[in-house]
Every structure is written in C-alpha cells, then in structure tokens.
C-alpha cells in the first residue's frame, strides 16, 4: 500500500515530480540550501517557445507510490537530481555509485536525471553521457540555476514526446492498446477476455485519460480537459468506475489550474473578467498567423469531439518536437485564458465532479490513499473558494477512510486534518483533531511515547479552546471558552509536562489551572489539585519568572492572585503624633495660586483623579509604615500564605515579611503589611509577593481587577526624631457623654493627657517629661496652646509655661530627657446675674429720679435686692465642675527632616475640671467719705461644701460657711485710667464703653486681693474679680474726679454731711470753687447748683419754685478749664418755708469718648435744714 | 410518557451563550460525558459558519433552526440559534430514525420557550449558568431516559 501525501494539492497534477536526493558527505544544511536553490525553478518557460510547465520537487518519494504512476501520471518520479559533495576523487566514485543506485530505483519511470557534485574541480565540464555536473564549491555555483533549467527542458522534451506518443495511441482506433492498470488491478486481469468491446473501450478510455495527464503535465491544459472529457465518456460506458473517477479528478485538476492560476494554497485573487470575454475580442488580440487564428477560433467555437480530433491532428503535424516559434505556443497561451468559458469546469462544478470522483474512489478499498488525497485536494480547492461548510462535509468523511496506518502516519493524518479545519475557520474542530493527534503520540500501544511532540501538539490546541497560558490575557471575570474542555486540556498538559520530565512546566500549568479555572472547579477538586500542586512544588518550587520552552515559546509566570484574593489595598497614614508636618511656605501658597482662575472644575477633577493613586500624606524614612489589605481565602481549606510582603519601586524600601494563615473560605480579613522606607523620596508600591502552595507569586496591582490603581505612590520625607511625652498628672478619663466634636478628634490624635480638678482660683503645676526615643537629636521644640476645642472659651492665663529652660537643653540627644512645667490657674466664671439685675434696676431708679441724687444709690441697692430673684434659685448645682479642655501642641524637629523644614507635632490634652468655690454675686461701688477712696462691696457666696476662710487687706479673716452668702466691703483707692484712644482699636467689635468697663474691672482685679482658704482640704486660692461688670456710673465713682470741689456755705467750708441750719427768709450764700485737678483741660462744662426738697419718704421734690428763691445764677457754663485752673461761682438762696432741703451741686461735661456726659457730683451731699424763727428758739 | 416516545429523545442538550461558552449542558448518564462536550463544542464551528453565511447573503428574517450541523458515526447534531445569538444544540443518536426534522424542530421550539421563560426570571443574569429547575425539567423531558 502506498503512503498518502498529505501535502498534495490539485495543482500537483500539472507538475512533473522530481526527486532530489543527497549523496556523499553533504550536511543537511548545505543540502537544504541547494534544495532551496533548485526549487526556485518551479515554473519553467521553455527558451525557444512560449510553452511552459511546472516542476515539483520532493526530497523523497516512496517507490510504492511510483506504481500509481500509470493511474495518475503526476505520481511518477520523472526526474532525479542527486546532490553530492566530495573532497576527493574517491568520494566522487561513491556519489556516482549512489546516483546509479537511485537511477535504478526509479528507473522505470525516470525520464532524465542529473548528478550535481560540489567541491570538485570541473574535470571536463558537464559530462553529457554520465549526466554529471561538477562545481568547485557551493558558493561558486552560479550555473546551478542554468543547469536545473536545462535539466527541466530536457525533461520537458521527453515528456512532450511521451505525450505525443500517448495521444497518437489514444486517437488511433485501429491499433491494439495496452491496458493501463492501477497497482491493485493486476490480479483482477487474470481470466478477462481481452477481445471484448468493453475491454477495448476500457483500454481506449484509460489511454485517453493517461494522455490527458501527460497533456496537463506538459502545460497543455485545454488539451488535457478535452482528453479527460473524452475518456470520461468512454469509461462511463465501459463501467470502469475507478478510472472514471480518475478522469473526473483530472478534469477538476485541469479546471483548477485554469480557474486558479495562482494556486489553491493561497486565497483567490479577484478574477479578471476581461479574459472571459467574447471570442471576437480575444481574436483581435491575436498576434499573427491566420493559421493560428483559425486554429484557435475553431477551438473556441467548437465543443464537439469531431472537430477536436481534427484540431488535434493538426496539432500533431504542426508541432514537431523542435516546435516552431510562431506555431502552437501562442495558441496555447491564448487557449489557457479563453478556454475558461468553454471546456473547463466552473468552481461549483469542480466540487461536484470531485464529489462524484470521491464516491467512485470510495468503492475501492485499495484506492483509499487516492480517496484520502482526493479529499485533501478537494478541501484545498474549497478553502480557496471559501466554501467552508462543504469543505467540512468532505473532511468529515476523511475520518472514516479506513487505512492501515502506522502511528506516525496517524498523527500526521490528524495533524493535516486539523490544519485543514483550521484553514476553513473551524478552529474548534482543528483543536479537537490536534488533540487527537497529541493523544496518538502517546497512545498506550505506543512503545515509545513521544511526550515532547504530544506536549507540542497540545500547546497548539490551546487557541482552538480559547485558552491562553498567560494569566493576564485570560479573563477571569467572565467565562471564556468551554471550561470543561479547557480543564481537561490543562490536566493533560500537566500530565504531559510531568511525563516529559519537566516538573517546572507541570508546576506552571498546575498553578495556572488552579488560578484561572478555580471558578469552574468543585471544592473537592480545588482541594485535591492544591494538594497535587503542593506535592509538585515540594520538589520544584514555583517561580515568578517566565519559563522558556524548547520550542521557543515562553510561558509567562502565573501569579496566584486569587490565592488569597486581595480585595483592597490601602496605604495608612502614620499615627498622628508621628506625621511629618511642614509649615506652608509662602512659595507653596503662591504656587497654588498660579492659575488665574479661582475655581476651575477641570483642575479639581484632575486632582481627584490623582488622589486615587497618590497619597495626600507622607511617610517618614526609617519609620515603620503600614498598608492595610483585605484578603479572601476562596479555598475550602486553610490557606497558608508565607512570606507575604509588598513590592515597591523608587526608593529603598524594606518590607517586613509576614506569614498568614487564612481559615477555609473566609474573608474578607484585614491584614496589615509593614515596611520601612530607608531613604527619602517618592515611593511607589506596585504589588505584593506571596508564597502559596509552594508557588512564589509576584502579584502586580495592574493585573488585579479588584484594585483600582496600578500603583500607589507616597512621598517619604527625611528622618525625624521621636519624643515620648509623659505628664506628672493623671491621665484624663473622658466620659462618653462628651459631645464636643473637637475634643473627640483631639483625643484620637493626642499622645497623652493630663487631668486636674481645681477650685476656681486654685492653681497647680503640671510637669511634662520629654524623652527622645529615636536615634536623632531633637534640635527644636516649640509649644502652642489650642483652646479651640473647649466649648467655653478658656480664659487667658489659665495655662502658662516657660519654655526657655527647656530650649536651653537642646539639642536633646537620643535617649535624653527634658522637662518643663505648665502652670494651671483655675479661673472661675463670674456670676453674671449681677449684671442682669443691675440692668433691671436701672430704669426704675432713673424713672423715679432722673437727676440721680446721691441718695438713690443705697436705695437702688435695696430695690435691687428686692427685685432680683432670690440667689438660691439661681444657684448652680453644688460642686458642679466646669470642664476646661485645651490641647497643648508640642512641635519638635531634628535631623535631616529639620533641615528640610519638617517637624512633628505631639499634642497633649489638658483637661481641668474647675469647681466653683466662691461666687461673687453682687458687686457695688460706693463712694467713700474720702474723695480719694471708694468702697467695693462684694457678695461672696460660698458654693462649696466646705467652710472657707476669706482674707483680704485691712480686715480680719472672714469665715463663710458652706452655702453662706456674705457681703464684704473693701476700700479701694480710686484710680484713673487714660481714656482708650479711639484710633487704637479701629476694628474692635467691643464698643468703647465695654472696653472701658473691661479696662477698669481688670485694674480693679489687680488692686483687690482677696484670698480664700479651705481649712478642711488645705487648698487655697484667690477670688477672681476680673470681668466684674462696670457701669459708667461706677467707673465715674471709681475713677479719680478731675474736679476738686470747694464748697462754702455762709463762708463756712462744707465737708461733712452735717446739715446746715438755716432760717426761713434768711439768705444763705453758697460759694462753689471748682479746680481742674486732672492733667487735661476740661472743656465745655456746666456747673449747676440745684436745690431740692427731701420729703424723707423716698421722694424728692425737685420743683421747689415757691419754696426757694435764688439770688444769682443757678447754672454757669465754663468754656474751658486748663489743668490747675479754677473758677468760682457764688449764689444765694432764700428759703420760704421750713423743711429739709438739699443742694445738688454737679458739673457736667460733654465727653469725647462716651455719648453720655460726664457728671461729677460734689460729695458729700449738702443738706440744709430750714427752720422757722419760732421754732428756732427751742 | 410512553416507551415509544422515550426512544425519540435526545442524548444531549446544550445551551450556549452568545460568547460561545456553555450556559447549560445536560447529557444522558454516561461515563464519558466529556465526549458530548467535545461534540457540542466542535459543532459550534458549524453554527458560526452557518450564522455568518446567512448574514452575508440575505437580510431577511433568519431561520432560527439551523438543521443538521454534522453527523458523526453514532450521533447527529442539530443546531438552533435565537435572535440574541443564544445557541441550542441537541445531539441525537444516529440510529434513531424515528426522529425526523419536524420532531427536532418541535424540540427546539420547546427548548426556546423554556429558555425564554427562564430568562424572564428577574433574578437571572443573562450570561450566568442556567440553574433553573423548571428549565431542567423541560430538558429532562427531552432526554432519553434510561428506564
């Protein structure tokens, strides 16, 4: 049985088969080189004519196939080329011997042969007799092409003569023809009557078919077509099915060469329609010779065989072997083009005919190879025609052809089948047969399983199964391809790789299997495969580097990104007290303003985008930094992840390796990876490293779809020192009831805290100890207080410190300690009820006495006591603490970070509970008898549970029992403060009057020193008077009057409150002398002396018109009074009735500062008792 | 169902997604169900080829039923494509001559209806594997029963 040629195409029918064989000592490379050169001469145009024909070169052709030469002429080996290389003459002999041997082997069919010998000096040129051609060397063989052409031409002429001979035989009906036979037909011939008509027909038909073959080989396609047609007609009538099929196939082959001049192995070119035009058009294009034109025209118009016979006869005479230049060739050339429209088959007909032929072939078991090749050839034609479905039907039948084949042949057959399927676009079928071929390589019957080629073939199937071994290209988010089959293929690849003795490859495939296909695996399968993988990796660990195969393919590494699956990755900022800070330099602020737009949506969007991968915080070099991951273990067993760490780019980064153990099917679990940046700069984190099931994986973020960013970068600033802060006070325990947001935030960031519980007025020291726990000396320290978190504002002076001593200790060396003290002075709140009540009482008194008699004051106090709500009702709950919170910010720096302007900030929360001690509930300022002093009366309310001892100047200690209210009076020297300049605080929101009030109360607080002591606990403190509300009247009272009075009544100096006795009707002279005692001039003042009657029942009568008469002016304006200047005013009063009278002597002056006028009232009040004459006597 | 009817049934029913991955595949109980996987998988080549050809030649309403995709030694493979490019493939035994084109068409129509009902389930995401029990019942009704 012959061996199928899987490479056959329909065009091979028209090519003369030449076998090229090596001989002597020629290496494969040189031989291949020469072979390539020879094969360049495929299409030969004969030098003297327009005829051309094709050659087909093969390196080997089994002699068994030669016997089919009669059946199909192109199967015959017609030419032989032996390529030899020799160094010595002895070699030449050996080559020649082999040449002769080969000639003998193919002798029966050989038309011509050559022996090409390289490496020998040309002895005597081409030896025509022995057909030996000599070349000095391979390089120096320019004439090789020429030799081959000449050889081809020689072949052609032999062929041509054989063709003519066969044609003559076929057309000559009288002669007895030999019966051409297919190899297996010989035994059937025995006992057949050769004299029958049927036999004769058979002989004739076969001969006709044979001459068709030869015509096709000789390049006469049209003649071949006619021969085939004629033979088909004859053979059909003779019931010679096998040869009929061959004739059909020949027709098809000839048609193919016409229809597809460029071959069927390439996609078809668009056919030029102009070639199939009318005979007239083509005939016009004919060159010369009426004979030629007549011949061709007759051919074109005639289809009948009778005409054809005439033409062929004509051809026989007009085409002698030497061939005339203007004869036949031209006609043939035209013929090839124009014949398309006539005898040759249309593309569809070709397929139909092939089908018929194949059906006939399939009837003969012995012609299986022919059938097989026929299918292949037909398929190739259909590929060209893009008739994929029909091609698949043909190929489907190919599987059923039963040929006894060797394993190798089977592999080749499946491989070819796969290749053909591939070409018709059936990649799945192709993959299927590739896999069958692969399995054939290692079939159990095979004693030498070829694992390598099996693996190679399996690798080629991957494409058909939509499988890629690159995990980056393999989509995991959706199913791609056919999982069940993909799994099978991968399993097979793993197994094959192991059998090949390439465990690394097996590990790579197995990890891919687990990685990519885990969604399609049952839990038990995952578990089992993981165990298998572990057993593999125990011998050869999985590596994260690409694996190069012998075939040149490169297997990319398989990072096990789903074992465990990392759900999220986040860089964490440093702890608040470790964060580096930088003072915003003026340059930075200007840089942010370099855009002319205040707001641009484009910019902000860009920034938002940036924010994702770029951290808005910084890390410090040398500091352990954290990254938070969320991992999921999808496996149904406990997963041990070893050596997990992050991968970084940029600066030196020392990742800390951590080992995880994740419970079965758990997650997401939070995992923290640590690392230390070693230098300053931009750090880029690009992925992480794991070691799972013995496979080392480098998982990059860009390959993980669940991680949004391809990398995360963070800026690392130079090293900074670290301080540990401790306080001498106990740590603050913050209750959960605290709703202060600012405080809550501060709590999270503070390093430590200090708490104290103090009575208002008490003070305490808090010692802070700073220890340098880093390796870098601290070079700068600064402290600031942030009181913004405290809900009531922290009074100034609550916390005080002196940093100079500490600063003197700098730089603080590593390990060294420094201390500094914060003094806490608890300042209690001033009871504000007083102010309210004062405001309440004011209108009533004013209403009753708009003139503000000096007597109103004590009375108004009385009324105040009555109108004000009882003290107890407003009393705060006892011992209720007022919390005061502040954050002490300790800013320090050192080392290289300091040079670059970075610092760290440690915040310490100071929490002070201020307990109320003594409440100042009512403050009054009363004029003292002496004009230089005044009295300050305070109602002190002891709200503590303890007895309090009050000590204040000029007095003995006073004991106030718990909950007791006591009034104390303190003599205060009057003072005067310069009026605040209006220009001083132009933007102050405090009105000038308030500012003045504050000023005076502050001054008063410094002057009055009231201390308290709690004998029971030993604590002591001061009573804070700061913030006492001061009314303008009080300020006038407390400030030193700029006017000095000197009042004389009846020339008697009046300076006591002793009433002046006066008689009815007697004049009483009043002399008032006013001196400006202040440093400034007083302008525009008015002096008024106003008498009134006091009825001693709470009312005063100002209208005393009928009771008193005044001699002189009651009122006098003074334009200006220079400092030290004085002026006098005198007037005389006459009283007409008895009673108690008084004189209100006052000076008013328009103030520059206040809208109200200044009033200076002469004290003491002038009282006059007017008596009747009659009453005077007793 | 009668015994006679049982013999008319399919040996493998598959639903394949638009992207040519299996949504559902049910075979008669056999040791080598991967064989059917291969059969159905390779039949996709023909399905694709048929769809492409139709698209090229006519713009008319496409015939959903693709007919016989290819015969193998033991089985015949039939195909059907919905307008959303969901493919149904039914494999029947070659020896089963009782099954004619009409029966196959009926089978596909039933399958298509069942699929449509299944897709109407708002909890089903198109492209997921089909796990509907109702659908499975319909498919099992078409399968050759061993009993």
Automatic annotation (TrEMBL), chain A:
Record-annotated Trs120/TRAPPC9 fourth Ig-like domain positions: 1043-1170
Localisation: Golgi apparatus
Residue intervals passing through the bilayer: none
Gene Ontology terms: cellular component: trans-Golgi network
Domain Trs120/TRAPPC9 N-terminal: 191-260
Basic and acidic residues composition-biased segments: 833-845
Positions of region (Disordered): 262-294, 833-882
Superkingdom, taxonomy of origin: Eukaryota
InterPro entries, sorted: Ig_TRAPPC9_Trs120_1st, Ig_TRAPPC9_Trs120_3rd, Ig_TRAPPC9_Trs120_4th, TPR_TRAPPC9_Trs120, Trs120_TRAPPC9, Trs120_TRAPPC9_N
Domain Trs120/TRAPPC9 TPR region: start-end pairs: 405-535
Compositional bias segments (type: Polar residues): 271-281
This protein's UniProt keywords: Golgi apparatus
Record family assignment: Belongs to the NIBP family.
Listed name of the protein: Trafficking protein particle complex subunit 9-like isoform X1
Species per Swiss-Prot/TrEMBL record: Branchiostoma floridae (Florida lancelet)
Lineage of origin: Eukaryota, Metazoa, Chordata, Cephalochordata, Leptocardii
Gene name of the record: LOC118404528
Automatic annotation (TrEMBL), chain B:
Places the protein is found: Cytoplasm, Perinuclear region
Key words, A-Z: ER-Golgi transport, Transport
Protein name (record): Trafficking protein particle complex subunit 2-like protein
Domain of life: Eukaryota
InterPro entries: Longin-like_dom_sf, Sedlin, TRAPPC2L
A GO cellular-component term linked to this record: nucleus
SUPFAM superfamilies for the chain: SNARE-like
Principal subcellular localisation of the protein: cytoplasm
Record-stated family: Belongs to the TRAPP small subunits family. Sedlin subfamily.
GO BP annotations, alphabetical order: endoplasmic reticulum to Golgi vesicle-mediated transport
């Amino acid at each position: 049985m012959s061996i199928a040629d899987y490479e056959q195409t329909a065009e091979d029918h028209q090519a003369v088969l030449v076998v090229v064989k090596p001989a002597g000592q020629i290496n494969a490379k040189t031989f291949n080189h020469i072979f390539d050169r020879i094969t360049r001469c495929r299409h030969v145009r004969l030098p003297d004519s327009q005829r051309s024909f094709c050659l087909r070169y093969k390196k080997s052709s089994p002699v068994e196939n030669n016997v089919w030469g009669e059946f199909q002429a192109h199967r015959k080996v017609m030419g032989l080329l032996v390529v030899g290389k020799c160094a010595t003459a002895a070699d030449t002999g050996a080559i020649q011997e082999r040449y002769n041997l080969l000639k003998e082997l193919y002798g029966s069919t050989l038309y011509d042969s050559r022996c090409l010998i390289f490496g020998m000096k040309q002895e005597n040129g081409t030896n025509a007799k022995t057909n030996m051609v000599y070349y000095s060397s391979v390089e120096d063989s320019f004439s090789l092409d020429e030799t081959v052409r000449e050889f081809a031409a020689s072949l052609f002429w032999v062929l041509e003569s054989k063709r003519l001979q066969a044609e003559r035989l076929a057309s000559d009906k009288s002669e007895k023809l030999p019966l051409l036979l297919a190899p297996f037909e010989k035994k059937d011939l025995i006992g057949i009557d050769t004299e029958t008509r049927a036999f004769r027909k058979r002989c004739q038909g076969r001969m006709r078919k044979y001459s068709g073959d030869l015509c096709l080989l000789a390049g006469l396609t049209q003649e071949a077509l006619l021969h085939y047609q004629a033979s088909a007609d004859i053979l059909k009538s003779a019931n010679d099915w096998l040869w009929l099929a061959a004739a059909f196939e020949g027709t098809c082959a000839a048609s193919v060469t016409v229809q597809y001049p460029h071959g069927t192995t390439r996609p078809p070119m668009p056919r030029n329609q102009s070639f199939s035009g009318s005979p007239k058009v083509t005939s016009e294009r004919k060159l010369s010779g009426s004979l030629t034109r007549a011949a061709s025209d007759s051919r074109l118009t005639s289809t009948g065989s009778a005409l054809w016979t005439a033409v062929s006869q004509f051809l026989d005479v007009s085409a002698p072997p030497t061939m005339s230049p203007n004869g036949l060739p031209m006609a043939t050339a035209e013929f090839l083009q124009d014949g398309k429209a006539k005898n040759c088959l249309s593309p569809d007909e070709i397929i139909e005919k092939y089908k018929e032929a194949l059906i006939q072939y399939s009837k003969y078991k012995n012609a299986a190879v022919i059938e097989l090749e026929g299918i292949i050839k037909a398929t190739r034609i259909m590929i060209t025609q893009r008739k994929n479905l029909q091609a698949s039907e043909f190929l489907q039948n190919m599987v059923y052809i039963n040929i006894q084949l060797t394993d190798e042949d089977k592999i080749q057959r499946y491989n070819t089948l796969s290749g053909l399927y591939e070409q018709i676009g059936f990649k799945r079928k192709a993959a299927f047969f590739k896999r069958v071929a692969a399995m054939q390589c290692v079939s159990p019957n095979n004693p030498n399983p070829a694992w390598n080629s099996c693996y190679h073939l399996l690798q080629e199937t991957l494409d058909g199964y939509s499988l890629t071994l690159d995990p980056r290209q393999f989509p995991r988010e959706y199913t791609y391809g056919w999982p069940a089959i993909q799994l099978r293929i991968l399993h097979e690849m793993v197994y094959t790789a192991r059998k090949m003795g390439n465990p690394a490859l097996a590990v790579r495939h197995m990890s891919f299997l687990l990685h990519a296909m885990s969604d399609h695996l049952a839990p038990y399968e995952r578990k089992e495969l993981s165990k298998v993988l572990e057993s593999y990796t125990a011998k050869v660990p999985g590596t994260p580097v690409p694996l190069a195969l012998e075939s040149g393919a490169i297997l990319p590494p398989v990072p096990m990104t789903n074992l465990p699956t990392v759900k999220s990755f986040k860089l964490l900022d440093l702890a608040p007290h470790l964060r580096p800070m930088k003072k915003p330099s003026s340059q930075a602020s200007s840089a942010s303003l370099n855009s002319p737009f205040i707001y641009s949506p484009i910019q902000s969007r860009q920034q938002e985008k940036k924010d994702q991968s770029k951290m808005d915080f910084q890390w410090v070099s040398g500091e352990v930094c954290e990254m938070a991951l969320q991992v999921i273990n999808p496996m149904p067993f406990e997963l041990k992840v070893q050596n997990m760490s992050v991968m970084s780019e940029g600066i030196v980064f020392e990742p800390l390796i951590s080992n995880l153990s994740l419970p079965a099917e758990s997650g997401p679990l939070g995992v923290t990876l640590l690392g230390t940046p070693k230098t300053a700069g931009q750090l880029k984190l690009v992925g992480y490293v794991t070691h799972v099931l013995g496979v080392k994986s480098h998982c990059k973020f860009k390959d993980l779809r669940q991680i949004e960013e391809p990398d995360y970068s963070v800026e690392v600033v130079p090293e900074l020192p670290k301080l540990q802060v401790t306080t001498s006070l106990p740590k603050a325990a913050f209750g959960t009831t605290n709703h202060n947001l600012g405080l809550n935030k501060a709590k999270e960031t503070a390093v430590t805290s200090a708490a104290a519980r103090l009575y208002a007025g008490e003070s305490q020291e808090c010692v802070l100890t700073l220890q340098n726990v880093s390796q870098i000396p601290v070079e700068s320290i600064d402290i600031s207080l942030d009181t913004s978190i405290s809900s009531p504002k922290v009074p100034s002076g609550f916390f005080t410190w002196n940093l100079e001593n500490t600063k003197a200790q700098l730089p603080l060396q590593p390990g060294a300690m420094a201390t500094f003290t914060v003094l806490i002075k608890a300042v209690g709140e001033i009871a504000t009820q007083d102010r309210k009540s004062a405001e309440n009482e004011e209108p009533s008194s004013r209403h009753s006495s708009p003139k503000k008699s000096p007597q109103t004051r004590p009375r108004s106090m009385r009324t105040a006591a009555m109108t004000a709500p009882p003290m107890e009702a407003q009393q705060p709950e006892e011992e209720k603490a007022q919390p005061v919170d502040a954050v002490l910010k300790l800013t320090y720096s050192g080392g290289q970070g300091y040079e670059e302007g970075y610092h760290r900030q440690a915040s310490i929360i100071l929490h002070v509970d201020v307990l109320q001690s003594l409440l100042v509930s009512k403050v009054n300022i009363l004029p003292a008898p002496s004009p230089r002093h005044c009295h300050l009366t305070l109602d002190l309310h002891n709200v503590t549970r303890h007895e309090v001892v009050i000590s204040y100047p000029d007095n003995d200690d006073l004991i106030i029992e718990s909950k007791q209210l006591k009034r104390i009076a303190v003599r205060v020297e009057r003072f005067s403060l310069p009026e605040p300049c209006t220009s001083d605080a132009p933007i102050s929101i405090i009105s000038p009057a308030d500012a003045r009030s504050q000023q005076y109360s502050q001054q008063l607080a410094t002057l009055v020193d009231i201390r308290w002591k709690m004998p029971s606990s030993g604590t002591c403190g001061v009573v804070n008077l700061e913030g006492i509300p001061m009314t303008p009247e009080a300020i006038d009272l407390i400030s030193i009057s700029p006017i000095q009075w000197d009042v004389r009544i009846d020339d008697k100096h009046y300076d006591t409150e002793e009433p002046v006795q006066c008689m009815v009707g007697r004049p009483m002279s009043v002399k008032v002398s006013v001196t400006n005692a202040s440093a400034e001039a007083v302008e525009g003042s008015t002096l008024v002396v106003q008498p009134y009657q006091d009825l001693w029942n709470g009312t005063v009568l100002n209208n005393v018109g009928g009771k008193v008469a005044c001699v002189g002016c009651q009122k006098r304006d003074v334009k200006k009074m220079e400092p030290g200047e004085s002026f006098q005013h005198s007037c005389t009063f006459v009283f007409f009735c008895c009673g108690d009278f008084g004189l209100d002597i006052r000076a008013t002056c328009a103030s520059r500062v206040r809208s109200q006028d200044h009033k200076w009232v002469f004290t003491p009040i002038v009282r006059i008792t007017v008596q009747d004459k009659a009453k005077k006597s007793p | 169902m009668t015994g006679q009817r049982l013999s008319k049934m399919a040996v493998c029913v598959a639903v394949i997604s638009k992207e040519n991955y299996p949504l559902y595949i049910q075979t008669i109980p056999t040791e080598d169900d991967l064989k059917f996987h291969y059969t159905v998988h390779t039949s996709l080549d023909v399905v694709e080829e048929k769809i492409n050809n139709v698209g090229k030649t006519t713009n008319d309403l496409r015939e959903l039923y693709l007919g016989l995709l290819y015969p193998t030694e033991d089985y015949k493979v039939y195909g059907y494509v919905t307008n959303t490019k969901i493919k149904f493939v039914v494999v029947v035994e070659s020896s089963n001559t009782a099954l004619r084109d009409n029966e196959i068409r009926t089978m596909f129509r039933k399958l298509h209806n069942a699929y449509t009902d299944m897709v109407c389930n708002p909890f089903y995401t198109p492209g997921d594997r089909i796990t509907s029990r109702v659908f499975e019942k319909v498919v099992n009704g078409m399968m050759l029963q061993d009993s």
